[in-house]
Design a protein that fits this description.
The structure holds 2 protein chains of 2 kinds. Chain A has 7 helices and 23 strands. By secondary structure, chain A is α+β, with helices and mostly antiparallel strands. A 9-stranded mixed beta sheet of chain A has the order 11-13-9-8-23-21-16-19-18, with no helix packed on it. Chain A has a 5-stranded antiparallel beta sheet with strand order 2-1-5-4-3. Chain A is globular, with a radius of gyration of 25 Å. By secondary structure, chain B is an alpha+beta fold. In chain B, α15 runs antiparallel to α16 (about 270-285) and α25 (about 460-470) packs parallel to α27. The longest helix of chain B has 20 residues, at about 750-770. The two termini of chain B are about 60 Å apart. The chains are: A alpha+beta, B alpha+beta. Chains A and B meet through β2, β4, α2, α3 and α4 of A and α3, α5, α7, α9 and α12 of B. Chain A: It is a peripheral membrane protein. Chain A: Pfam families: Adap_comp_sub (PF00928), Clat_adaptor_s (PF01217). Chain A: One of its GO terms (cellular component) is Golgi apparatus.
Chain lengths: ~425, ~1000
């Protein structure tokens, strides 16, 4: 099982270590540093690194490497999942997961890691159980603790750990009972030069924020559940009911949680919200290149496309870019060659465009590579797959909760080749 | 640490007093004293703050062990947080302060009886983490109670504690019967307890290979399946992994387990999903293919696998490695999902490369157009490694999908037109493979290829181009000019190119003999006379003999029709694949190597095989044969230069040498050695000092292996043991490309019959050339020769020699760092060798070697290491490790290193022994051009522990009778005849192990001539 954990920052310092079995020397990280040196980009460090006596399994999040050390055959996904859970927990506790935040809360971090693994076996990874055991630090609590000397460790037995619904603590009480569900879809697509879709798929999630008193039992039904043929559920969802009736039936955890994630594969017809007209070209023998980009809405069901951000890694030979945006602002980083254009909202009557010239280094030959254009965007009040919630019902409690459903579409890895 | 702590403090604005970072600021001297005072304070609050500071120091790696007694004093408290903090501290430092840790025992035992189950569990959990023997004794009783505790939370914690205890003291756990209690917990009413018991048992079972700890029967399986639905995600992983080890009795049981596992495919935790996939993939084998459920299951497997690919890149990577196995075993699952493997430009490189691999595996006639368009797109990306692999992938598509070959070739030609240097080179390498698969089909493109001849600067591309020119010499008008242009810088080329050029020109000569005679003579003389590469020289000589004795036969051999390369030589070998399918989701599946190949944790892994349903037509082999096949067939198909060193690669490179690898690991080498030596080997490696009385076999002229007749070759052997590589190349193949594997083997079959005599003659010539090479001994220390050139070892150059000083054999080396970076962490290891030479201690290189620095190292050797017959006898294969990589080389030691100081035989004994050794064990050699008189020779030889026992003068000839004794107890007797005025000596050697004679003779020669 998981032997040790090292946290390494982007400059290569080990700033925290935790051992669940015997102590493994820090020098084991040298193998990681070697791999890090070989990798051209921080994210290119291989996730599994063998060393003579250990294996190092790492994830990179928030520019921190979380490096787990294992000694025997352990499923790597188990380790990676756990590491992501650690990051999520830190984020949940401290709001951000940064080196500074971890150092500021080092004792809580240590206590958390101790509760999350026992001898390398996961012990308590559910946020509500952890929060019962160790209270998250808040400014107020820290102040109160400093003044009164009280503790941030729960004195109670974490009852949730033993119940049949370990994800929910008992005795929850709210004055305003509310349940909000966010349907968020990310569209991943590759569009080729000519504008036709090579592949497009949708990663969707339903995130919930449930603040309900007692032990409510919820059911959520969809207008078009057929869309959901590839789903992953939170453990609270009753799988049999879904199989039989295509209804989500569950006792929700308290607070924020991800109820479900789903995937609409490229075999379905996926709507593409925007189109891009582009002309990025260099002429042989000339040190100037043309850059011409126009965006327009495509299949948006009448909703407006907002927060559009276009980025593109221009060829290495490009020295400067002299462009003129019809709206928004653009930047070009001459070191990384990254061009970013913050477009904002697309007005269908007046399409945003970015036009101008790029100049190459003197004497540089015509670049071979074609830059790829990366697009980020947001569309409110629409799930691009067409998924719609039919109704939400609550059983088991008497009060009437306030319910809300929100839809949103974002671009995930949305790439246009030129 | 201190630095960043201070910096952190400065950088922080207000509010910093409120956070834990304040604990990092007190790093000044006297801190320990201050903390000590605070820990002993009466005020609870101050105490707690102090413990917090101690913990903070500990987490950043500062040594606060001196505070042990003070911290332990804080343990008896009702404050849960303080207790926990103290426990944290204890776990960290108990090991270094075992006596102090005892002080904590009482509190632990008391806490185990606490009313609060949380405290009970915490106490038993912490105790298990204190890895001190003395404490574990006290742990047994509380643990036994906790395992039967009424509270499941305590039971579940105690279950893990058994695994901890087992890690510290396995015997104790067995003696105390904890294993049985743990097994009982599998039937516990609480699913979490079941899951933890399974997890603990699985971990313990890993160190007990043959125990039946997880004795699975239908009842326990049923309990596990019930618990599976109710326990946490992590518990589900343990249970699923455990289920995968079960072999269902029939297809109905198999189906019912599959049905109950399938819902796990929808779990949000990807590790649960992959473990479920493993169980399903394994149990699916049992299902009849015509069953409806079988089809349903296949359909259900695709979506979760696709979903894994939308997770974080690290998860994607592991998923892709496993999908790679799954598509090889059951391509139908994902055949419609090609698009999800299309590469996004900002995927990490490790994801890109894996996706590419799977794309090729899924390529079929139906989707090839799409795939090719994608691959072409990738070939214009920025990342060089990725571009190269994409170009190669196009070639693999051509070989895999015949209908697409034409399109692939035209795509490759398009890419060549881009004139991007590495794209062109990569394209030429794969086009060569396409020629091998579809001969006489696409040769029209050769003209285009020839246009880019000048731009090729990588050996592999040059070799590929040369192969093409040689292979199609008759269709290329100026083939001779082209090859001649390569010949100009022959010595600057890499070996790969040199070998290929040699073969290509010989092919050309056989095709157009009239115009190219001069060229072929030129290359043969370059290869045989001016080169010091034994492979090249050997091949040159063989061609030379071949051409001069029987050109018709030469044509048959060299221009023999080559077998077509098969479509996918990079597929994982089926038995290995079956085993890996049983290990989906594990490290083995990420590395595509059997679990037994792993360094640690492999002790207990049994080989797992898929069991298929009866009548499905797939072979069911016993696990034993399966595993044997696996170990003999490494996953790489093409033998590379490195493979010549055989099992040296498997050695564990830790400095203190102990045992060699088990004898089964180097089949090739061992077979070769056995075959040549027969009974002689026994006497050579036997450690009895008396020569064994078994009659020994000698090599007679009728021996079926001409090259091994005495005199046996000094330089020849390392290549001999791996016939697949070099001899196979005679037919004109080039190794190194992934699709070439099956090309080996066929052509050399024609060789032995027709070329017996000429070759052995040729080899004799060869040995005369090489025989004089630098062996020296005794007081004379030969100059160091380069063993490992810097080019082959990433800048590390090792030269060295062997010395015997007052009975101690030393290997003296100069390590020269010609790289740009510092080298450190050196270690050395020997392969098993004829006389059991082994390092007597670790390699003493204490300081790192900086660039351009060289360092002298002397390594004392012992002769008690593991023994394996080498060819030649005094060959030594060495592996040297440093912080950069592991490197292998072989060198030869003078056999006089092994001559003992007490090697002088009694006269009578000598006489008797001489008579006793049968005459066929006698070998006679000539030592030419030696101008010493008999006394001077005798003195000189004595320096190398060759002792003259008697001298006789008959008819103006001095006869010296000499003896020497090898470290393994073998005596060698010699009669040296020296005639005044004649510079040629005659030496007769008699030994019960005649194999050593050759070495001994060489040794005489070198000693006498230096």
């Amino acid at each position: 099982m998981i032997h040790s954990l090292f946290l390494i920052n982007s400059s290569g310092d080990i700033f925290l270590e935790k051992h669940w079995k015997s102590v493994v020397s820090r020098s084991v990280c040298d193998y990681f540093f070697e791999a890090q040196e070989r990798a051209t980009e921080p994210e290119n460090v291989p996730p599994v690194i063998p060393t003579p006596h250990h294996y190092l399994i790492s994830v990179l999040r928030h520019r921190i490497y979380f490096v787990a050390v294992i000694q025997s055959e352990v499923p790597p996904l188990f380790v990676i999942e756990f590491l992501h859970r650690v990051v999520d927990t830190f984020q949940d506790y401290f709001g951000v997961c940064t080196e500074a935040a971890i150092k500021d809360n080092v004792v809580v971090v240590y206590e958390l890691l101790e509760e999350m693994l026992d001898n390398g076996f996961p012990l308590a990874t559910e946020s509500n159980i952890l929060k019962e055991l160790i209270k998250p630090p808040t400014i107020l609590r820290t102040m109160v603790n400093t003044i009164t000397g009280s503790t941030n460790v729960g004195e109670q037995l974490p009852t949730g750990q033993l119940s049949v619904v370990p994800w929910r603590r008992t005795g929850v009480k709210y004055t305003n009972n509310e349940a909000y569900f966010d349907v968020v879809e990310e569209i991943d697509a590759i569009i080729d030069k000519s504008g036709s879709t090579i592949t497009a798929e949708i990663q969707g999630v339903i995130d919930a924020c449930v603040k309900l008193t007692g032990m409510p039992d919820l059911t959520l039904s969809f207008m078009n559940p057929r869309l959901l043929d590839d789903v992953s559920f939170h453990p609270c969802v009753r799988f049999k009911r879904w199989e039989a009736e295509r209804i989500l039936s569950f006792i929700p955890p308290d607070g924020n949680f991800r109820l479900l994630s789903y995937h609409v594969s490229s075999q379905n017809l996926v709507a593409i919200p925007v189109y891009v007209k582009h002309n990025i070209s260099f002429r042989e023998g000339s040190s100037q290149g043309r850059f011409d980009l126009t965006l327009g809405p495509k299949q948006t069901m009448g909703k407006s496309v907002e927060a559009v951000l276009v980025s593109s890694q221009l060829p290495r030979g490009v020295l400067t870019a002299n462009l003129n945006p019809s709206q928004g602002t653009y930047t070009f980083d001459p070191v990384t060659k990254m061009l970013t254009w913050d477009v904002g909202k697309i007005n269908p009557q007046k399409l945003p465009s970015l036009k101008g010239t790029m100049s190459l280094q003197a004497g540089a030959s015509k670049p071979d590579e074609n830059p790829t254009i990366n697009i980020q965007l947001k569309i409110q009040q629409m799930a691009i797959s067409g998924l719609k919630v039919n109704r939400l019902d609550m059983y088991g409690e008497k009060y009437k909760p306030f319910k809300g459903i929100k839809y949103m579409t974002k671009a995930g890895k949305f790439q246009v080749r030129t | 640490m201190q630095e960043w702590a201070n910096q952190l403090c400065e950088n922080r604005q207000f509010g910093s007093k409120m956070t834990d970072s304040k604990y990092f600021t007190t790093t000044k001297k006297g801190e320990i004293f201050e903390l000590k005072a605070e820990l002993n304070s009466d005020k609870k609050e101050k105490k707690k703050e102090a413990v917090k500071k101690v913990i903070a120091s500990m987490t950043v790696g500062k040594d606060v062990s001196a505070l042990f007694p003070d911290v332990v004093n804080c343990m008896q408290t009702d404050n849960l947080e303080l207790k926990k903090l103290v426990y944290l501290y204890l776990m960290n430092y108990a090991k270094s302060q075992p006596d102090m840790a005892i002080m904590a025992v009482n509190t632990f035992v008391k806490d185990c009886e606490d009313l609060n189950p949380l405290i009970r569990a915490l106490a038993v959990r912490t105790m298990g983490c204190i890895r001190v023997d003395k404490i574990t004794e006290y742990l047994c009783e509380p643990l036994r109670k906790c395992l039967k505790d009424e509270d499941p939370y305590v039971r579940k914690t105690a279950a893990v504690c058994v695994a901890k205890l087992h890690d510290i003291n396995a015997q104790l756990v067995e003696d105390q019967g904890f294993l049985d209690t743990l097994k009982d917990l599998i039937s516990d009413s609480n699913p979490m307890v079941v899951a933890n018991a399974v997890a603990a048992l699985s971990e313990i079972a890993e160190s007990h290979p043959n125990s039946n700890l997880l004795d699975l029967n239908p009842q326990t399986i049923n309990k596990l399946l019930t618990a599976l639905n109710e326990c946490t995600e992590w518990g589900q992983i343990f249970i699923l992994d455990c289920l995968a080890n079960y072999s269902p009795r029939d297809d109905r049981e198999s189906q019912s387990i599959c049905e109950r596992v399938t819902p796990r495919l929808s779990h949000a935790n990807s590790a649960v999903v992959l473990s479920a996939v493993k169980v399903l993939m394994k149990f699916m084998e049992m299902l009849p293919k015509d069953l409806d459920y079988y089809g349903t299951l296949l359909k259900k497997l695709a979506p979760p696998l696709v979903t894994l690919l939308s997770a974080e890149p690290e998860l994607q990577y592991v998923a892709l490695r496993n999908i790679n196995l799954i598509v090889q075993r059951r391509p139908e699952i994902l055949k419609h999902e090609m698009k999800v493997f299309f590469v996004k430009y900002n995927d990490p490189i490790y994801v890109k490369l894996e996706k590419l691999d799977i794309m090729i595996r899924l390529a079929s006639q139906a989707n090839i157009a799409q795939v090719l368009a994608e691959l072409k797109e990738y070939a214009t990306e920025v990342d060089v490694d990725f571009v190269r692999k994409a170009v190669r992938a196009i070639g693999r598509c051509a070989i895999k999908v015949e209908q697409s070959a034409e399109r692939c070739v035209s795509t490759l030609l398009d890419l060549i037109q881009t004139k991007v240097n590495y794209v062109v080179q990569e394209a030429i390498v794969v086009i060569k493979d396409i020629f091998r698969k579809y001969p006489n089909k696409y040769e029209s493109v050769i003209a285009t290829l020839c246009e880019h001849l000048e731009s090729l600067d990588e050996p592999e591309a040059r070799a590929a181009m040369i192969w093409i020119v040689g292979e199609y010499a008759e269709r290329i008008d100026n083939a001779d000019e082209l090859l001649e242009s390569f010949l100009e810088g022959f010595h600057d080329e890499s070996t790969q190119v040199q070998l290929q050029l040699l073969t290509a020109i010989v092919k050309l000569f056989l095709k157009k003999p009239t115009e190219t005679q001069e060229l072929v003579q030129q290359v043969l003389s370059l290869a045989t006379q001016d080169s010091d590469n034994p492979d090249l020289r050997d091949r040159g000589y063989i061609y030379w003999r071949l051409l001069s004795t029987d050109p018709v036969a030469a044509k048959e051999v060299v221009l023999a029709e080559k077998p077509l390369i098969s479509e996918e030589t990079d597929l994982i070998e089926p038995t290995l694949l079956e085993e890996l399918i049983c290990h989906i989701g594990t490290l083995a599946s990420v590395y595509h190597k059997p679990p037994s190949a792993f360094v640690e944790g492999s002790r207990g892994v049994q080989h797992k095989r898929l069991t298929s349903s009866a009548g499905s037509g797939e072979s069911v082999e016993s696990p034993d044969t399966g595993s044997a096949a696996v170990s003999e067939a490494p996953p790489t198909v093409i033998p590379s230069q490195g493979d010549l060193l055989g099992d040296l690669l498997n050695l564990d490179l830790t400095p203190p040498t102990s045992t060699g690898p088990p004898p089964t690991t180097a089949p090739g080498m061992q077979l070769g050695a056995m075959d040549l030596l027969g009974g002689g080997l026994d006497s050579l490696i036997g450690d009895e000092s008396e020569p064994p009385p078994i009659p020994l076999r000698t090599d007679t002229p009728q021996s079926p292996q001409p090259p091994h007749q005495s005199p046996s070759p000094p330089h020849y052997s390392p290549t001999e043991v791996a016939p697949g590589n070099h001899t196979g190349s005679l037919g004109g193949d080039i190794g190194g490309s992934p699709a070439m594997g099956t090309g080996f083997g066929a052509p050399p079959a024609a060789m032995p019959a027709s070329f017996n005599a000429p070759i052995s003659g040729g080899l004799d010539d060869l040995f005369d050339l090489g025989g004089g090479g630098g062996l020296t001994m005794g007081t004379y220390i030969p100059p160091k020769s380069v063993w490992l050139p810097a080019m082959k070892a990433k800048g590390l150059e090792i030269s060295g020699t062997f010395v015997r000083r007052s009975g101690v054999i030393q290997m003296e080396m100069t390590l020269n760092n010609k790289a740009m970076s510092v080298m450190s962490d050196f270690a050395i290891q020997f392969n098993r060798n004829s006389f059991g030479l082994a390092p007597a201690g670790p390699l003493q290189i204490l300081t790192p070697i900086s660039p351009n620095q060289s360092i002298e190292a002397a390594l004392p050797l012992s002769t008690v290491g593991p023994v394996m017959k080498m060819e030649p006898l005094n060959n030594l294969q060495v592996a040297v490790k440093n912080n950069i990589d592991v490197f292998y080389f072989s060198c030869q030691y003078p056999i006089s290193m092994l001559f003992l100081e007490d090697g002088k035989m009694e006269r009578q004994v000598f006489l008797a022994t001489w008579k006793d050794i049968p005459n066929e064990n006698e070998s006679q050699f000539q030592i030419k051009d030696c101008h010493l008189n008999s006394d001077a020779a005798s003195n000189k030889l004595q320096g190398s522990n060759i002792f003259t026992i008697a001298k006789r003068t008959v008819e103006g000839q001095d006869m010296l009778y000499q003896s020497m004794k090898l470290t393994n107890g073998i005596w060698v007797l010699a009669e040296l005849r020296v005639q005044a005025g004649n510079p040629n000596y005659t030496i007769s050697l008699k030994c019960r192990a005649p194999e050593v004679s050759q070495c001994v003779f060489q040794n005489y020669e070198t000693v006498l001539k230096n």
